[in-house]
TrEMBL record:
Keyword Chloroplast: no
Domain TRAM: 391-458
Gene (name only): rimO
Protein species of origin: Octadecabacter ascidiaceicola
Source organism superkingdom: Bacteria
Annotated protein name in UniProt: Ribosomal protein uS12 methylthiotransferase RimO
Required cofactor(s): [4Fe-4S] cluster
BP terms from Gene Ontology: tRNA modification
Record's keyword terms, sorted: 4Fe-4S, Cytoplasm, Iron, Iron-sulfur, Metal-binding, Ribonucleoprotein, Ribosomal protein, S-adenosyl-L-methionine, Transferase
Reactions listed under catalytic activity: L-aspartate(89)-[ribosomal protein uS12]-hydrogen + (sulfur carrier)-SH + AH2 + 2 S-adenosyl-L-methionine = 3-methylsulfanyl-L-aspartate(89)-[ribosomal protein uS12]-hydrogen + (sulfur carrier)-H + 5'-deoxyadenosine + L-methionine + A + S-adenosyl-L-homocysteine + 2 H(+)
Main localization of the protein described in the UniProt heading: cytoplasm
Residue numbers spanned by region Disordered: 1-24
Entry GO terms, CC: cytosol; ribosome
InterPro entries cross-referenced by the UniProt entry: Elp3/MiaA/NifB-like_rSAM, Methylthiotransferase, Methylthiotransferase_N, Methylthiotransferase_N_sf, NA-bd_OB-fold, Ribosomal_uS12_MeSTrfase_RimO, rSAM, rSAM_horseshoe
Length: 458
């Protein structure tokens, strides 16, 4: 049984899954969605609109009348991946519309691929639709196609991402996301809840709450909209989502003091005892150069407090090694902090320059071989912590959600501690007859590895 590799990128969404029936003569649009879950939600919204207008959706290039490529621009390596995907779509299809984060740099894209049909930036849904209409006019069957829009899901039916806001008010020097997606813009709570209710009504068992800064949700609302609130808007939203009966998993939660309000909801079982928090580093000087809050000691105190309130809490985070100016002493501080924090799930990037990021101008960039060495040492540390934590779970009984059952009858599942694609899995390799994808079952853990568990149904 293969295990998750230790270099699994924490910024990627699950692979797109499209199974759409078509009719003869129906105009067809292909979709390639790259990057993070937030981009995947944008792709779902675009495709939902297109399907409501009578377009068929295809995961293939060859059978489509045009292809939309939703790009990522978070890192230079992600930009290169996006350019490659655009080139492949042009080669296989010829008619390509580009959108997404890299779409904020249209001249850069056209410099490499001048033959594309159109370029739009992130969450510019109307412009994408205009480009599709101009190049592939709709031809709906009024008795079949022009029905109220039902959502197109690019994930398995039993889980779905729920985006609660756009943009970010942070000014981290290594990040250009605020330049591409703008300042924080929180969705109205009633709109989020309406979408969540529809998802649960349609069979979704797990809601994955995403944004650029989840714990800041609602802080951008005008004072009159927040008047009378007795707690942070994210706390109220999390409590309301927890009342729907599905698993609720919070991603991208900055470690503000108000995060403490969420922990009792986890202890009470309303939302999953899981926090995805981007700590990025632990040394105060490194954090200062990143323009991040430089209170690593206070963060350790908060972690201890969270675990005191909810002993079962799972903490996941991402880190950057080799940031400009990072000394061996600063990196060692990060390793020592990891020993103290004992995080459950960890991802790590080697620092990369990104066009437009202020960190590019910092002095003392770290050589590539040093970054690789530090990444290796960091992941060795994280792997040892993960292995020890998973070994302690052997003999426990826990609920898991079934993501897949292969032809050999092996079920790939996730515990409450595991988000899709970025964390580990629990495998059931016998006694799976009668189990179904999307089902939540109780399992006794009988074996542990570095990143994954194995168990049997109780």
């Amino acid at each position: 049984m293969s295990q998750n590799p230790p270099n699994l990128r924490p910024d990627l969404a699950p692979k797109v899954k499209i199974q759409e029936p078509t009719r003869d003569g129906q105009p067809t649009i292909g979709m390639v969605s790259l990057g993070c879950p937030k981009a995947l939600v944008d792709s779902e919204r675009i495709l939902t609109r297109l399907r409501a207008e009578g377009y068929a959706i295809s995961p293939e290039y060859s059978g489509a009348d045009a292809v939309i490529v939703n790009t990522c621009g978070f890192l230079d390596s992600a930009k290169a991946e996006s350019l490659d995907a655009i080139g492949e779509a042009l080669k296989e299809n010829g008619k390509v519309i580009v959108t997404g984060c890299l779409g904020a740099e249209p001249d850069y894209i056209r410099e490499h691929h001048p033959q594309i049909l159109a370029v739009t930036g992130p969450h510019q849904y109307e412009q994408v639709l205009d480009a599709v209409h101009a190049n592939v006019p709709p031809s709906p069957d009024p008795f079949i196609d022009l029905l109220p829009a039902s959502g197109v899901s690019l994930t398995p039916r039993h889980y779905s991402y729920l985006k609660i806001s756009e943009g970010c008010n942070h000014k981290c020097k290594f990040c250009i996301i605020p330049d591409m997606r703008g300042k924080l813009a929180s969705r109205p709570a009633h709109a989020v809840m309406r979408e969540a209710e529809k998802l649960v009504d349609n069979g979704v068992k797990e809601l994955l709450v995403i944004s650029q800064d989840t714990s800041a949700y609602g802080t951008d609302w005008p004072s009159e909209q927040r008047r009378g609130l007795t707690e942070q808007p994210i706390t109220t939203l999390a409590r309301d989502l927890g009342s729907l009966g599905a698993w609720v998993r919070l991603h991208y939660v900055y470690p503000y003091p108000n995060v403490r309000e969420l922990i009792p909801l986890m202890s009470d079982g309303l939302i999953l005892p899981y926090l995805d928090i981007p700590f990025q580093h632990a040394h105060p000087e490194t954090l200062r150069r990143m323009a991040r809050p430089a209170h690593a000691e206070r963060t350790l105190d908060r972690i201890e407090e969270w675990r005191g309130l909810c002993p079962d809490i799972t903490l996941r985070s991402t880190f950057i090694v080799g940031y400009p100016g990072e000394t061996e002493e600063e990196f060692q501080t990060l390793l020592d902090w990891m020993d103290e924090a004992q995080l459950d799930r960890v991802g790590c990037f080697q620092y990369e320059n990104v066009d437009g990021a202020r960190s590019n101008a910092l002095p003392d960039h770290v050589p590539a071989e040093v970054k690789q060495n530090r990444w290796d040492r960091f992941m060795e540390k994280a792997q040892a912590i993960s292995e020890a934590k998973l070994a302690a779970k052997v003999g426990q009984i826990m609920d898991v959600i079934i993501d897949d059952i292969d032809e050999d009858g092996i079920a790939t599942c996730r515990t409450k501690s595991d988000a899709p694609e970025i964390d580990g899995n629990l495998f059931i390799d016998e006694g799976t007859a009668g189990l179904k994808v999307g089902e939540i079952v109780s399992v006794e853990v009988d074996e542990a590895g570095e990143y994954d568990l194995w168990g049997c149904v109780r």
